[in-house]
Amino acid sequence: MCVSNVETQPGPRNRTHIADTPVTIRNWYKHVNWWGVVLTILVPLIACVQVIWVPLQFPTALLSLVYYFVTGLGITAGYHRLWSHTSYRASNSLKVFLALCGAGAGEGSIRWWARNHRAHHRYTDTNLDPYSVNKGLIYSHMGWLIMKQNPKRIGRVDISDLNEDPIVIWQHQHYLVVVIFMALLFPTLLSGLAWGDWAGGLIYAGILRMAFVHQATFCVNSLAHWLGDQPFNGTKSSRDHFLTALLALGEGYHNFHHEFPSDYRNATKWYQYDPTKWVIRIWECLGLAYDVKQFHPDEVHKRRIQQMHVLLAEEAATLDWGVPSSQLPVLEWEEYVEQAEKDGRCLIAVAGIVHDVTDFSKSHPGGMLMLKSVIGKDATAAFNGGVYSHSKVAHNLLATMRVASVRGGCEVEIWKKHQHNDADTISPMCQ
């Protein structure tokens, strides 16, 4: 999400780009992208000072608000969802409208903006991401605009479709003229000719309105990768949050967007704030937009469920589920029986696992006598319904009392061991 239309050209092959050199006291000014500083910092600051002498008239305030939404939609519905992700197709009249409105936001040409945004999606959170949040929240917000980047360090993407779009190419080639007119002259002329507020039109509806659109868009690069939930994918930094959606005309449901980038929506729920989605739907009803892409609800729900499983597994990993069976020491059945009541211990075997219920015996809901009756024996059947069908909670609690496993699983091993000597007197007791 960009401000300048100038793409830095690589220098001679044997020359190191300034961005790849350390910042020092002597060369710091060479690292600065001065066009980015002027457009995103100095010009808005000058406008803020002018506010002292230029009163805000109500018609100008209304124009500023309306033009904020119009130019914002030029970015969200045009630059982003139409050209960057081809979420839908638009008539030529709508494309011209969006190209002009997007230029009014002052964020660069469609071609330049979409190229960077496609790189952001393809190389999210890597060094090839032009505004990776891993380089810092401030850097992802606007630091990447005010500091020079080596164009060779930005990941390669395919923009052949943009190069074949005559409206994109026209806007790119004439961007300077278009942006000056749409971002500054148009609101100035409208407010000046309509109600005589020339200065207010330039300051409020022009410069400050553009600055607010910039900051709202920048929030998608920064806040949307830092603030909120991750209901669809936790491996990347993108997040969903209502605040970011409110600032950026619905673009704040960013975790969904990074999982389903070609979907024309950012918000899937009817109550979630996504005016860009609503406007695209209206255009579709009017025949201005068509081939609107939307993932099947089952696919969206599957990803949500998969991510829920991941989150539940992470939460489960913080709990005590007992020592894994594979890590328990192995006892012969005779050793288990011998140690079952030794030194006041109370050991029982359930499903081939020895459990130390000494501390739990006094609080056993079924009484201490019930436990004593199976000490040193195979209590599998009793635990699983022979006496009482224990709950899942009981199973979980019992797992935390594991101390050993029985070789072979139960008393049948005694029978197998001695069947060739005394098969008639020793019978299997595994239940």
UniProtKB/TrEMBL annotation:
EC number(s) per entry: 1.14.19.1
Alphabetized CDD domains for the sequence: Delta9-FADS-like
Any matching Pfam family: Cyt-b5
Residue ranges crossing the lipid bilayer per the database entry: 34-54, 61-82, 175-196
Localisation: Membrane
Topology term for the membrane: Multi-pass membrane protein
GO biological process terms on file: unsaturated fatty acid biosynthetic process
Single GO term (MF): stearoyl-CoA 9-desaturase activity
Key words, A-Z: Electron transport, Fatty acid biosynthesis, Fatty acid metabolism, Heme, Iron, Lipid biosynthesis, Lipid metabolism, Membrane, Metal-binding, Oxidoreductase, Transmembrane, Transmembrane helix, Transport
Enzyme class: oxidoreductase
Cofactor: Fe(2+)
Entry note: cofactor: Expected to bind 2 Fe(2+) ions per subunit.
GO cellular component: endoplasmic reticulum membrane
Presence of keyword NAD: no
Catalyzed reactions per annotation: octadecanoyl-CoA + 2 Fe(II)-[cytochrome b5] + O2 + 2 H(+) = (9Z)-octadecenoyl-CoA + 2 Fe(III)-[cytochrome b5] + 2 H2O
Database matches in PROSITE patterns: CYTOCHROME_B5_2, FATTY_ACID_DESATUR_1
Source organism superkingdom: Eukaryota
Primary location: membrane
Family: Belongs to the fatty acid desaturase type 1 family.
Function of the molecule: Stearoyl-CoA desaturase that utilizes O(2) and electrons from reduced cytochrome b5 to introduce the first double bond into saturated fatty acyl-CoA substrates.
Protein name stated in the entry: Acyl-CoA desaturase
